[in-house]
Each structure stands twice: as structure tokens, then as C-alpha cells.
Amino acid sequence: MLSPFFWVIVFLIALQYRRIAGHKERLFGVKDETVWQQVTIAVIHGILGGIIGALLMIIGGITITNIGIGFLWAVAILLLLVSPRFLCFSYAGSIISLSYLLFGWPQIEVAHLMGLVAILHLIESFLIVASGHLGAMPVYTKNHKGETVGAFTLQKFWPIPIVALVVVTGVPAGEIVPMPDWWPLIKSFEPINPEQSYYAMLPVIAALGYGDIAMTMNPQQKSYHTAALLSVYSIILFILAVIASHHPYLAILPALFGALGHELTIYLGKRNEMQGKPLYVASDVGVRLLDVVKGSPAMKMGICSGDIILSINSMRVENRYHLAALLQTVYNFVEIEYVKNTDNRIYREILWLKPGKSLGIIPVPEPTDSAQVTLSAKGMLARFIQNIVKKFKKGDKPEW
Prior knowledge:
By secondary structure, the protein is α+β, with helices and mostly antiparallel strands. The chain folds into 2 domains: about 5-170 and about 180-275, no CATH class; about 285-365, Pdz3 Domain, CATH 2.30.42. It has 10 helices and 9 strands. The protein has helices at about 5-30, 35-60, 70-80, 90-105, 110-130, 220-245, 250-275, 295-300, 320-330, 380-395, and strands spanning about 135-140, 150-170, 195-215, 285-290, 310, 315, 330-340, 345-355, 360-365. The strands form 2 sheets. Strands 4, 5, 6, 7, 8 and 9 form a 6-stranded antiparallel beta sheet that branches. Strands 1-2-3 form a 3-stranded antiparallel beta sheet. β5 (about 310) and β6 (about 315) form a beta hairpin.
């Protein structure tokens, strides 16, 4: 953590959180969380994730000496150009592993590489449970039917200070710590000679990111659902890596499961969003709320996301435009009647609201509203090729 590079990662993560906060302010005119709060939480959770990951790396005996870390990053960046969702070591690790198994290049230990991928995803599942739902940004988007619905985009980034194992040739300068006979769980094809080399712990700095969207669940439910799928994927991949280290002819199993299992995880996560019933849509009566600004008068009253406002000062609310007009007429006291999402009971609260003070609510979109956010999975290379094709179809010369 004393490394300057760690704090460079923290700074870059802070820029991402600042960008997200800027989007929320531009879309809804609200600013409910400071960037430094989000970054502090991310750093604390990242340190905890790094400790867990370091223990798993050492217990597994995974070394980064022969996993082709340079190739791993190079392939991951190339995949990013195709689509941002492919910026994941599961795809890059599978490609490199299959290349080695089929062509003998580059020289890597498949079990250790895919074991590393498994542990990184297990850390990510822990971090998603801990904070994946925090700071979720409300948006208006379109579902698979083309309907405008309310949703939350979940975007989190964590700096990860972690310890990895490396094989060092020579005589150790310090004391050697004896390990049990079953260690390491993931064996190397060529076990090290304790008289000529040894395992050493190397501090490594990494960063993890998580992106998701919640349309049929609230952000916390969505993050838990994603984390559960990801943890199952990680455990299976780790078990396959252990098996492959003991039986090299089965190395094809973790190599294939790394990418295919990750795709299955994504498919299962999206299936519910595509086939399920949208949660944040207009109600038959009143106005359903997509989000409530933190620390706002509405939150202090106990109003939450998913609640339905029925009336303002005994005047029935028809839609979100009518609600905005009624709130403009409020002076000092306001009586709000609303249905609580958690128990479907009707509540009535009286609030002192200063003139010109916002209630701090974000309603769900009406059927006639347009989407604010369009979800796209195309990378820079795919967009570049698409733009060239469009220009040629129009008869224009492409601009380079």
C-alpha cells in the first residue's frame, strides 16, 4: 500500500466514481454522495479482498512465474477492443491456455493460470456482496421489448493489494517456513528442488471492476444474485485447476470452462433481466419511485425506492408530471400519502418543507418517456469497423 502505483490506481478509480457522479447529477440534478466517500469504501473493501485473495493464493500454491502474465494482459486488451465485456482474465486465460494445449505456445502452466482466474473471480464475488449495490445510479433505459423502464446501473471499482507466489532460484536469504505435505493444492508440472530454489511472496497491485444493471430486482438483490453465480463459477474453476495440476491430460477442462463457464454465468444473470417482469415501471395509481436521494426530506420521512406516492395534500397524483406540478404549490407543510413497497400498507406523513426545497425523489419513467441510457456491448474496434461500413454504404470516403 506504500507503493506509489497503488495510489495511482486509487486516483484512476476516483476519476471513475467522479464520472459516475457527474452522470447522475446531469440526468437528475442530484448529488447525494461525495466521491471521497465512495473511494474510501472501495479502498477498505479492496484491502479486505486482497487479504482474502492472498490467503487463497498461498493455500492454493499458485505461482505467477509461469502463467504468461504479459500475454494475459495483451490478449485482454485486444479483447477490450472487440467488446468491453471481454475485458476479463477468464476469456484471455482460456485463449492462452488453449493456445498452449493446441500449439505448445506460449509456455505456461494452465492449472496455475486458471487457478489465478478462479481466485480473482472469488475475490470479486466477495466484493460484489460487500458493496456492489452501493452507489447504484438510477437510469431510464429500454428493456428487450423496447419499453422504457426504470433501472439501476451498478458500477464499482476496487484497488486490490495482494500477495502472489513466485519461484526464485538460489538460496533464500531469510528463514524458510515449512509447509504441510498436502501443499500446494495446485501442483507444478516440474516441482521445484528445495536445494536450488524456493517460493517467495511478492506484493502485487491489481484492480477489479464490476458492471451490471438491475431492472427486475433492486440493486442489493441483483448484486447478491450475481455474486452467487460468480462464486459457484469460481469454485468449479478452482476445482478443475486442482484436478488439472494432478492430471495434466485434463488441463483442457479448466481451459474451456474458464470462458464457457463465464459466458454461462453472464447468460444466467441476464436471463432473469430479459424474461422477468420489470420492477421500476409506472403503476396504475399514483407515482412509483425509482430512487430517493440520500439525506433528502423524502428519505427522512421513510420513503424508499419502489414506494408509490398516492396524494399530495389530499390531492390525488395522476403521473410524475402532475406530481411535479403539485409539489410546486407546496408551501411549508406537505402531507404525503404513499404505499410502502415492503408491506403494501398505506402511510401518511406530514413534512415541513422549505419553499423551493426539493423533496428528493426520482419517479419511474412514464410510457411516453424516452430512454436516457442505451446499453451497448461494442468495443472501439467494432464501432470503428461499423462506422467505416456505414460510410461506404452512403458512398462517402471514410475519414482516418
